[in-house]
Design goal:
The complex is a heterodimer.
Chain A (H helix, E strand, L loop, with lengths): L14 E10 L2 E7 L3 H7 L6 E2 L6 E2 L12 E4 L2 E5 L10 E3 L14 H5 L9 H5 L7 H11 L16 E5 L3 E4 L3 H12 L4 E4 L8 H4 L5 H14 L2 E3 L3 E2 L8 E5 L2 E5 L3 E4 L3 E3 L12 E3 H9 L9 E5 L2 H12 L4 E6 L7 H5 L3 E4 L2 E6 L6 E6 L2 E6 L2 E5 L2 E3 L2 H5 L4 E4 L4 E4 L6 E3 L25 E3 L4 E2 H9 L5 H8 L12 H12 L22 H4 L13 H6 L4 E4 L2 E4 L5 H10 L2 E4 L4 E6 L3 H8 L11 E8 L5 E11 L2 E6 L4 H15 L4 E4 L4 E7 L3 H6 L16 E6 L2 E6 L8 E7 L3 H12 L5 E2 L2 H10 L35 H10 L3 E8 L10 E3 L5 E11 L4 E9 L8 E5 L5 E7 L9 H4 L1
Parallel strand pairs in A: 1-7, 8-14, 9-10, 9-15, 10-11, 15-28, 17-24, 18-19, 18-24, 19-20, 33-43
Antiparallel strand pairs in A: 1-2, 3-4, 5-6, 5-7, 12-13, 13-14, 16-25, 21-22, 22-23, 26-27, 29-30, 31-32, 33-39, 34-37, 34-38, 35-36, 36-37, 39-42, 40-41, 41-42, 44-47, 44-49, 45-46, 45-48, 46-47, 48-49
Chain B lengths: L3 E4 L3 E4 L4 E5 L10 H9 L7 E7 L7 E7 L4 E6 L14
Antiparallel strand pairs in B: 1-2, 3-4, 4-5, 5-6
The chains are: A alpha+beta, B mainly beta.
């Protein structure tokens, strides 16, 4: 390892005093602190880092800056990690992604070799694997195995926590190169709050990797930025720019949602590969990639290098590499009239006008053929540097709503119009040296010339797509998937445009080729970050811990956690029927409607009447949409002339608050609506012994004469001020107590104590569902849906069409009444032992679906299956025999009933 | 959608703080005219352009208000308490 590094020099990123050991393909590799996975592996002699997506061609380091797909690896079980952007950590486990059995000997490589004349050209899958059709599942299995990047472990459980943070700054700078650092320093020196995002391990961009000459300038600039108080997020990347300049910045396990007053794009430029035969062989590198290895990681394992270029950038790179110790044999410049004197002065052969033709070698570069007119030159080398000029990184500009245009002088796309609040600086703005001549056309060498390194798209594929009628860049992109891989077009956007221009005979400098649309995400982004936890915390009732400690099986109920049961559902049902049960119903929505027009407001909101209610009474009500559908139900208690206490379903609490306040925003009546759902706890004490037990805790007269069914009153119970509602969702004598949530646990324990002589049992959600079904009480949203109106739902008595005031749903329900009912909601019972599943169909005489089961349970008390169903009116008479479909294939015979299954006359409720 | 919307009570906030309440519509008040009733219940204009709409500040004051917004550019032209939008365009955030 040590012997592979050059002598220590200013600007290197590694700390030679600190060794780091990690696993690569199961073997230990040692690098230095400051190394990336890629540089440490390269130092240890690794040259093949991955196999390509389709042909499984060996791939080595190319850009060393996270732009190309060549070094994607799996790290500690996470696939598609960029090795060249990830610092080494002690003990990390790094593996290759998609080769079998190993990177060096990948049998799948034969796929590309065996069919050289036809290859797996674009569209190959669609055209080949369609015959015979029944074989597709087999083909799919094989193809899925061969294609793709990495494997996800379906059993993986997330152990880390991912977070979202909202950030507001004056200025957000994306890119920590020279231009970005300057823009950030300048703004911060004016007193603005500035954040800067840098993707790489080093600030400074080209100043950092461009060789020792720029080190002084870099140090001064970084000092200035730090002195000005710029906040630096590094390594971190901007995932895109969304409407209103919203920029998600991903850093480690955090997604920062930045909304800056000003967004500065300083994303620089990306050096482009050249297109020639075998241009993806390990050992073919971008000039900037080779310079990073030499200047930042002090690696120089090559014997002899050749530089291929079409711009002055390649000439500067050749000199820097030579300066760093690389033996540069020759520079082949595809331009005929450029000035190569600096190269010749350095003692390097300069080949003007020579086009790259084909790289030699099978798993590593051994040489290159370059061509000028009819003249060939073959040069031996183990490092082939290519520099196709650079293009401005304008993807984020386009995403943010900026326009870009082709600049003929610079031969690249530059920002044109910018949205308000966005500024582009540095090379992304097109201010750097011109890209220079572009290669006129890709050579016809007979071996693969890769345009898109991510998806293995060759020049031939693009030509074929045009031949088949996909006659523009955007269409060809969709057919060939060029620009659609992990690099998002960074390596292929320009070259695919040039190949298309060549094929169509267009001037490569004309705008007509166009650009493809850039969309987020701009970088490979983990789903864990996108799914980072939001801001909706779990809701727990005041007695949550009591339930959990007493065997309550807690489950999600909307935003809440509620006990399903306490381990003995049947026993809990029996306790309510025979003696005493207690359930926590704090999740019910609770609204106070108060004011001079409170009564009039409810009259207009509900189909039934509330204005005529006596004080200290409670009444059941349903809420309808203006289309007449049932949207919620609950009770309304009149506490005083001007104050009502409204309960809603648990899941409907938030929606009903919005519904109530919305209509009052329309009507502007003189009343206020207060949502007290979370501040008020509620318990229902139910069973024949409820009165006796509760009497021991209060002086309030609970006798049937003083406080009958549907009474509402204020009482001190065990010292806690409660609103007591005498209602019976579960069908027995019961008292629903509403109290300050802070006293919830205290009162709950007192109630359990008072119930002890009666063997009180706490009961959960599931026993409650059985109990309510025995009473044929509906659950809105389970027994009803968006098409259920109260006339068909068996509640015509609740609809007061003769009310003098207008009310919500009135006109639709008038219309339904004129039309007549088509369906009706009824009960059914099945005595042959079968219990239908909820949601199953009722089968008509003709074998067709004729209704739908909405609720179904076995009632031990009644000894039969009972439930609720929607049936056509003509099949809904009391006593009608129906057949219910069973998934096992048979049907379950059942009988229609209209009366509650248990205590149909409500004697127990009223006792 | 990630634009900024101004609540008349709380001021400018990211749109994620609000719940959208749909287009401002004229309620039908008869069942006799079926076409008008169903049009009110089931049809929306789905305007591409300036539109008046309801918003609920669910992560803030929990009050309803109205906004006039260009739905193609997501430019908020004016916001107001219910029923107080000015007939002609006003300045955003007004």
């Amino acid at each position: 390892m040590a012997e592979r590094r050059l002598a220590q020099r200013q600007g290197e990123l590694i700390d030679r005093s600190q060794e780091v050991t990690f696993q690569w393909e199961g073997r230990p590799v040692t690098g230095y602190a400051g190394d990336t996975i890629a540089s440490a592996l390269f130092a240890a002699g690794t040259r093949v880092f991955s196999r390509s997506f389709k042909y499984h061609r060996p791939r080595g380091l190319m850009c060393c800056s996270g732009q190309c797909p060549n070094c994607l690896v799996e790290v500690d079980g996470q696939p598609t990690v960029r090795a060249c952007m990830t610092p080494v950590e002690q003990g990390m486990d790094v593996k290759h992604l998609n080769a079998w059995p190993s990177l060096r000997r990948d049998f799948l490589h034969l796929v590309g070799r065996l069919t050289p004349s036809f290859g797996m050209q674009v569209g190959f899958y669609y055209k080949t694997f369609i015959h015979p059709r029944r074989a597709w599942p087999l083909y799919e299995k094989i193809l899925r195995n061969a294609a793709g990047l990495g494997k996800l472990d379906p059993d993986h459980r997330r152990t880390e926590r991912f977070d979202k943070v909202h950030r507001h700054v004056d200025v957000l700078v994306i890119g920590g190169g020279e231009a970005g650092l300057e823009a950030a320093a300048e703004a911060a020196e004016q007193g603005k709050h500035v954040a800067l995002v840098e993707e790489g391990l080093a600030l400074g961009g080209q100043l950092a990797w461009g060789g020792p000459r720029s080190n002084g300038r870099l140090t001064a600039l970084v000092d200035r930025v730090n002195a000005a108080g710029v906040e630096i997020l590094q390594p971190a990347y901007a995932g895109g720019v969304y409407e209103g300049l919203l920029v998600p910045v991903y850093q480690g396990r955090t997604m920062h949602r930045f909304r800056p007053a000003e967004l500065v794009i300083a994303t620089g430029s990306i050096e482009q590969p050249l297109v020639f035969g075998n241009n993806d062989l390990p050992g073919v590198m971008l000039a900037s990639g080779a310079r990073r290895l030499v200047n930042q990681f002090r690696l120089m394992p090559w014997e002899q290098a050749v530089v291929l270029t079409s711009s002055d950038e390649g000439l500067a790179a050749a000199l820097d590499l030579a300066d760093g110790g690389v033996n540069v044999l020759a520079v082949a410049d595809s331009r005929r009239d450029a000035d190569g004197s600096t190269i010749e002065d350095a003692g390097i052969e300069y080949l003007a006008g020579f086009q790259p033709w084909q790289a030699r070698g099978s798993t590593a570069v051994t040489g290159v053929v370059v061509k000028r007119d009819g003249e060939h030159r073959t040069l031996a080398c183990d490092l082939l540097v290519m520099s196709g000029g650079s293009v401005g990184q304008t993807a984020l500009v386009s995403q943010g709503g900026g326009g870009i245009r082709y600049d003929r002088d610079q031969r690249r796309y530059v920002p044109d119009s910018l949205p308000e609040g966005m500024r582009v600086v540095g090379a992304a703005a097109g201010s750097a040296a011109a890209a220079g001549a572009v290669p006129a056309q890709a050579p016809k060498t007979g071996c693969k010339q890769i345009v898109c390194f991510c998806e293995d798209v060759t020049t031939k594929d693009i030509a074929l797509s045009l031949d088949e009628g996909f006659s523009s860049l955007e269409l060809s992109k969709r057919y060939t998937t060029v620009t659609m891989g992990p690099c998002q077009g960074r390596m292929c956007h320009r070259n695919s445009g040039l190949v298309i221009a060549d094929q169509l005979g267009l001037d490569p400098d004309s705008q007509r080729v166009g650009v493809t649309t850039s969309r987020p995400p701009h970088n490979p982004t983990s789903f864990s970050l996108l799914a980072a936890r939001g801001y909706e915390p779990v809701k727990r009732t005041s007695t949550h811990h009591w339930h959990a400690e007493h065997g309550g099986k807690m489950l999600w109920a909307g935003d809440w956690k509620r006990p399903y049961d306490y381990g003995d559902g049947d026993g809990e049902v029996d306790a309510v029927h025979e003696s005493l049960g207690l359930i926590d119903v704090s999740t019910l929505g609770k609204l106070i409607v108060r004011g001079p027009e409170a009564a009039a407001f409810l009259e207009r909101l509900y189909p039934n009447r509330f204005g005529d209610m006596k004080l200290a009474r409670v009444r059941y009500g349903i809420v309808c949409g203006d289309d007449g559908s049932i949207i919620d139900d609950g009770t309304v208690a009149r506490l005083s002339e001007q104050e009502y206490y409204v309960t809603t379903t648990s899941s409907g609490a938030g929606g009903m608050e919005q519904w109530f306040t919305w209509w009052n925003a329309v009507w502007k009546m003189d009343c206020e609506i207060v949502n007290v759902t979370s501040t008020i706890a509620a318990f229902n004490l139910a069973g024949p012994n409820a009165r006796t037990a509760l009497s021991t805790l209060t002086d309030f007269d609970l006798s049937n004469e003083a406080f009958p069914y549907l009474g509402a009153g204020h009482a001190q119970i065990a010292g806690v001020p409660c609103l007591v509602l005498r209602i019976g969702f579960v069908g027995e004598l019961g008292y629903e107590l509403h109290l300050p949530a802070a006293a919830g646990e205290h009162l709950w324990e007192k109630l359990m104590e008072a119930g002890e002589p009666y063997a009180v049992k706490p009961f959960g959600l599931e026993p409650q569902r059985v109990l309510r079904l025995e009473k044929m009480h509906i659950i809105v949203g389970q027994d009803t849906n968006a098409e259920s109106n109260p006339l068909e739902a068996g509640m015509p008595w609740i609809v007061k069409l003769d009310k003098e005031s207008d009310w919500i749903g009135r006109y639709a329900i008038e219309w339904y009444k004129r039309r007549g009912n088509r369906l009706t909601l009824v009960g059914w019972e099945a005595q042959n032992g079968g219990v239908p599943i909820e949601g199953t169909q009722v089968v008509g005489a003709d074998g067709q679906p004729a209704g739908r089961i909405t609720s179904s349970r076995f009632s031990r008390r009644l000894g039969k299956a009972i439930g609720i169903a929607w049936l056509p009116v003509e099949q809904s008479e009391e006593g009608t025999a129906i057949n219910i479909s069973d998934p096992k294939g048979s049907t379950i015979p059942a009988t229609v009933t209209h009366k509650a299954f248990y205590d149909p006359d409500g004697e127990r409720l009223r006792s | 959608m990630s634009f900024i919307l101004s609540c008349p009570n709380c001021g400018p906030r990211a749109v994620d703080e609000y719940a959208y309440g749909g287009e401002v519509t004229e309620r039908a008040t008869t069942s006799e005219d079926e076409r008008a009733l169903f049009h009110y219940l089931y049809f929306r204009t789905n305007t591409g352009g300036d539109q008046r709409e309801w918003w609920f500040h669910s992560s803030g004051c929990r009050e309803w208000f109205q906004a006039e917004r260009n739905t193609t550019r997501n430019e908020v032209l004016q916001v107001a308490r219910p029923g107080e939008l000015t007939p002609s365009r006003g300045p955003a955030g007004g």
